[in-house]
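Last lecture ended with a question: if I hand you only a sequence, what can you say about the shape of the protein? Today we answer it with a concrete record. The protein is Ribosomal RNA small subunit methyltransferase A. Below, first the input exactly as provided, then the predicted structure, then a couple of comments.
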Amino acid sequence: MSEEQEPTATQDQQDRQGRLLGAADIRRIAADAGISPTKKFGQNFVIDPGTVRRIVREADVTADTHVMEVGPGLGSLTLAILETGAAMTAIEIDPPVAERLPRTIAEFMPDAVDRFRVVNRDALTVTPNNVPDFNDDAAFTLVANLPYNVATPIILTLLERFANLDSFLVMVQKEVADRLAAEPGNKIYGTPSVKLAWYGKARRVGNIGRNVFWPAPNVDSALVRFDRHTPDEQAELAGGADREATFRLIDEAFGQRRKTLHAALKKTVPAEAFGRAGIDPTRRGETLTIADFARLAAACTAGSVAEPTAEPATSGADHD
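The predicted structure:
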């Protein structure tokens, strides 16, 4: 008796389940819609299905994931997200691109139409009020090929406005990725590194070649994965410090990064606050962790921090 063969999907089922975009598809869609990639919006469209599937895999997107995508372009990554069964909202600043995207989803992945929505808006203006898809307490993830010229502001703005933005996987310029994931003491450690660490942990998870884009960019790209602190972790890190006050200290310290903390923060931080926070004022801002900055911000409010033993002076530190 022969073994029963597994049923195969019909061509109609396969068509409705959809497929991803290739280079020829991208160019055809762009030509049909009269769309040309613009430097104004930092548009470099991904033309390789393997790359977008890799991004979705690194982001751990499943059918249960609620996804925000910023800068979907012509839909390469969008379709890879929808392929998992996830529900998503895409934020697109360019009106012709936003208008064309639903047609692309309907053409290439008809079964996903009901799980997709596009909002024609600048990502820097997005709030829980004007994009109500994400205004409840349910966690969501950001998956995006971000415009390189505004990647960091977009990330920090969304994290500030959406407490339920639980994780992200973004493709950014390699140098930006390095800065986002940098640790204290590294020469590229700076304001973005420290501020992002307030919200959670970032790490680089891979590089992306230039040949997967149309048009090919003049810079290399990399993937950054971020996971937000749990409420307990956030409370422990902050130690009662206010985020805005902490970020002001970060801006001032890195605005004069070659100066000691005492010199860079002399107009903001009382001398006794360094002692209360247990931080040597002859250190530079680039050596402090986000927890150090938070402790110093809290110490600026008299009596808000118990007085630990001050650190000894760092050998070889510059004095201003």
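Comments.
1. DSSP finds 13 helices and nine strands in the chain.
2. The CA atoms of residues 18 and 275 lie 62 Å apart.
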